[in-house]
Write a structure and sequence with these properties.
Helix content is 25%, strand content 31%. By secondary structure, the protein is of the alpha+beta class. Strands 1-6-2 form a three-stranded antiparallel β-sheet. The relative contact order is 0.29.
C-alpha cells in the first residue's frame, strides 16, 4: 500500500483506529512524515497543523499541511515510500 501511495487522511484514519492512544498515534504520524516521499512537492517551507475536535479540545481529529502558497487537507497529501 505504501509503495503505491496512500493519502495522509488514510494514514491518520488507520492510526486512529489502531489499539494505541490518540496522542501516541499523532506523535507517530508526525515522526513518520520524514520517512515518506510527499506529493504534491511541498518545497522547503511547510508546517503541519493539527485540527482539533472542538474549540478548547486537545483531541486531534485531522492534520493539514500549510505552505506559503496555501493549505493542503490530509486528503490532498499523498505519501509513498521512497524508491
Amino acid at each position: 500500500m505504501l509503495v503505491g501511495g496512500m493519502s495522509l487522511a488514510a494514514l491518520i484514519e488507520t492510526m486512529f483506529s489502531a489499539p494505541i492512544g490518540r496522542r501516541d498515534a499523532v506523535h507517530n504520524i508526525t515522526r513518520a512524515l520524514d520517512d515518506f516521499a510527499i506529493s504534491p512537492e511541498l518545497g522547503p517551507v511547510w508546517h503541519l497543523r493539527y485540527v482539533y475536535e472542538s474549540h478548547g479540545s486537545f483531541r486531534v481529529v485531522d492534520m493539514e499541511i500549510a505552505t506559503p502558497t496555501g493549505t493542503l487537507s490530509s486528503k490532498d497529501v499523498w505519501l509513498r515510500l521512497p524508491v
